[in-house]
Amino acid sequence: MMRPVKTYYPILPVIISYGVLFGIGIMVPGKWQLVSQLAFYCALGQAFNLFMGMTGYVDFGYVAFMGVGTYGMAVSIYYLYDKGLGLGLIVIGLILAAVFSTLLSLAVGAVALRLRGAYFAIATIGVNEGFRFLIEGARIWNGADGMIFYRHLKTAFGKQTAMALSTMWADVMVFGVAVLAAVLTLIYMRNKVGYALTALREDEDAAKVMGINVTKYKLTAFITSAILAGLLGASAWALKLTYVYPEDVFEIHYTVEAIIIVLLGGAGTLLGPLVGGLIYGVSKYYLSIVLPGFQLLIFAPIIIAIIVLFPEGTVGIFKKRIFGTPLEKYII
Amino acid sequence: MSLLKVENVTKRFGGLVAVDDMSFEIGHGELMAIVGPNGAGKTTMFNLINGVFPADEGRIIFEDVDVTNYPAYKRAHLGIGRTFQIARPFASATVQENIAIGGMFGAAGSEINVDEAMELADHYIDLIGLKPHRDKPAGGLTPIEKKLVEIARALAMKPRLLLMDEAMAGMNPKDIDEMVAFIREIRDTEGIAIVALVEHIMRAVAGLTERVIVMHQGALLVDEPTQVALTDPRVIEVYLGRPPEETHAEG
């Protein structure tokens, strides 16, 4: 049997899953909050996986890209709300989010991507903390006072639309980011960049000798992943909450969640972050109902157990099970 | 015109002179060995040729291009291929993908897309006889199979010079003879120069190569046709300690 190496079938289960999730949110009353939270975790995992899963580098400062993305959207709404731009305001916000996260990832990548393993991880923690203190200390964009812009949003769009933007469309955009991240991941996997990333993840020195410009490909994955994080911050945080405080968005907790989601689902797989995001989001949600206050205490050993028992993640295990079956071409 | 020219190359690690003022040339399609006892600087010499690290002094010229300051990946694009002493295939990638990666990013990489690289990989999978393992992750292969995958991966790069680091270490005499025959065949069919790096398997050197460079304490000791080099008293003294005929049993 010819093994399908160049098909795009594996995007089907991803799209269908997000479609079903979205459908549940729309149809089942009272579930939209949970569904949008799940979509956020899936999108976070999917975006983070594009860098961590594909390169093997763990970026502990990842949330900084979401932070600057959040500020991108906030700056657009806060300063341009009275210019009569209409939905252009949101578009500019997304563009600014992408530009900010690109610039930050270029700056960080140029320095930190020269480091490997734990050194890279430590250096990137510094980026996140450093950026937060820069905004607070230099009083950029109101510094620690943050930006509150629901009023601006209301002035620009009217009450109805502003409400719809923050309670509905922001979440829809999160779904969009998740799907975009998945599509980009698969496109990378199917092209030279994906093979280069696999090679450098497995053995960076051997990859160089094979003719792979590892810096170029690492930076490509890093910037792509950072832009997705920026867009996620702009949607899930800025537009949805309509305020931003530096201590909220430059919060390392979210990076840790991203790492857990990717590991639960299966690093470097396409479906993994989706599965990991769902497992993480659902268990976090129900544990907080069943055992409020104790959810993290219960959650920690569960996560440790899963990661120790299934180091390849749930999708990694599943992939092995279906090797050689017709299902194989749909799951990576 | 020679394929590779090494001119007065020196590499120091702190106070240790690992490679000391080495100069030699390699011709197109030549089959030769760099030999020397453990610590003679052979692997460092390889690393300097393919750019794992830069030389402190001297120049390295490949096909009339001064590559002394080129990073490893650019030298690979020009046609310098390499296998490692301990085979390092990309463990999670399949055998086919491993070899295809060589094709995608090697000397012919800019003209080859992913599909073509996969076809090229199939060609080399047949050559090394690993067809049943094509779709298995390379991490699960035996050491000799990994070595073969690595050679195939290097060949898929379409190099003009292939550096093979200890291709036969840890093999029994029968496997060595098979590998020698295989490497000769590659040289003849692919028309590439091959430099094998060998520490002590004289069976391989004698059977495989036409010319031998002997390194000792980082410097060039002898650069002669194989039979002359292996019977040179200096080589016997510093490197073998006894005539090469008696070392056959070691293989």
List keywords for this structure.
heterodimer; A: 332 residues; mainly alpha; ABC transporter involved in vitamin B12 uptake, BtuC; two-stranded antiparallel sheet; 15 helices; B: 251 residues; alpha/beta; Rossmann fold; 2 domains; six-stranded mixed β-sheet; four-stranded antiparallel β-sheet; 10 strands; 38% helix; globular
Quick recap:
Chain A has 332 residues and is mostly helical.
**Helix percentage range of chain A:** over 70%
- Rg on CA atoms of chain B, Å: 18 Å
Strand order of the largest sheet of chain B: 6-7-8-3-9-10
- Secondary structure class of chain B reads alpha/beta
Please count the helical segments of chain B.
9
What's the end-to-end separation of chain B, in Å?
36 Å
Q: Which CATH architecture of the largest domain in chain B?
A: 3-Layer(aba) Sandwich
Give the C-level CATH assignment of the largest domain in chain B.
Answer: Alpha Beta
Could you say what the CATH topology of chain A is called?
ABC transporter involved in vitamin B12 uptake, BtuC
Describe the structure.
The complex is a heterodimer of chains A (332) and B (251). Chain A is built from 15 helices and 2 strands. With 332 residues, chain A is mostly helical. Chain A has a single domain (11-330), classed as ABC transporter involved in vitamin B12 uptake, BtuC. Chain A has a two-stranded antiparallel ribbon. The two termini of chain A are 18 Å apart. The mean pLDDT of chain A is 92. Chain B starts with a strand and ends in an 11-residue tail after the last helix. Chain B has helices at residues 42-50, 72-78, 95-105, 114-128, 143-156, 173-190, 202-208, 226-231, 233-240; strands spanning 4-13, 16-26, 31-35, 57-62, 65-66, 80-83, 161-165, 193-198, 211-216, 219-225. Helices cover 38% and strands 25% of the residues of chain B. Chain B is globular. In chain B, a hairpin with a 2-residue loop joins strand 4 (57-62) and strand 5. In chain B, helix 3 runs parallel beside helix 5, helix 4 packs across helix 5 and helix 6 (173-190) packs parallel to helix 7. Chain B has 2 domains: 4-79 and 159-250, Rossmann fold (3-Layer(aba) Sandwich); 90-156, no CATH class. Chain B contains 9 helices and 10 strands. In chain B, the strands form 2 sheets. In chain B, strands 6-7-8-3-9-10 form a 6-stranded mixed beta sheet, with helices on both faces. By secondary structure, chain B is of the alpha/beta class. The interface between A and B is medium-sized, with 24 and 32 residues.
